[in-house]
Amino acid sequence: MAPYTITYFPVRGRCGATRIMLSDQGQEWKEIVVNFEEWMKGDLKKTCVFGQLPKFQDGDLVLFQSNAILRHLGRRLGAYGKNDNEAGLIDMFADGVEDLRLKYMKLIYQEYETGKEAYIKDLPNHLCRFEVVLAKNKSGFLVGDSVSFADYSLFEVLLNHQVLSPTCLDSFPALKSFVETLSARPKIKAFLDSEDYKKLPINGNGKQ
Ligand code: GTB
Fold it and tell me: Which residue minimizes the CA distance to atom 2 of ligand 1?
């Protein structure tokens, strides 16, 4: 039986990186899909610690907050660095990815019509931070020489940005290679090619 259960809306959204991570790590999980109508009844919301999804179960452990879920899986599956220093750096990059994700979500959910052009123009100023790190760390990962939860989070946010602006990585060779390399990892490739992945919209409002 799959030890993990994800309860979330029928979107990639805040579970995109978790699903990619679980796939790459050879894990199975169960999905409980909550449609908006069901959510609006309010019964499930009342049981969620912050009144929001995703909810993640690992046996008896129940977690909310997508980044706490990623960190938990990082510890559980050995994708949180080799030592405390690497873990600190991984946290730092994961928080940097979260900053970019929040900007992206603000665009998608609040400013898409009025702000898309300016967002894409400003995007290199954010992507260049990660480009520098990946160009320096020859392993192809953000930290050390193995994949971490921050890599999955960055990878997923970059996939979304390539949909928003297909050429956005053209001036960032290290980021481009990072996306190509992770996309080609056999378990990630199989997941990205799957109907389970393709059938889900990136965001809840249909914008991308
Ligand atoms: N910090 C939290 C985390 O990282 O997990 C943020 C979680 C969050 O924003 N959850 C949103 C939620 O539960 C869904 S993600 N919203 C319902 C509520 O607050 O009552 C974004 C999202 C928006 C809309 C849809 N949709 O319409 O299907 C799906 C996902």
Answer: 65
CA 197 to chain centre: 13
Residues 170-193 pLDDT 10s: 999 999 999 999 999 999 999 999
pLDDT exceeds cutoff 70 at 1? no
CATH placement of domain 4-79+191-198: 3.40.30.10
Classify residue 55 by its DSSP letter: E
Percentage helix, strand, coil, to 5, in the chain? 60, 10, 30
Query: Does the domain spanning 84-185 belong to CATH 1.20.1050.10?
Result: yes
Domain ranges of the chain: 4-79+191-198, 84-185
- Mean pLDDT for the chain overall: 98
Ligand 1, atom 22: nearest CA belongs to which residue? 204
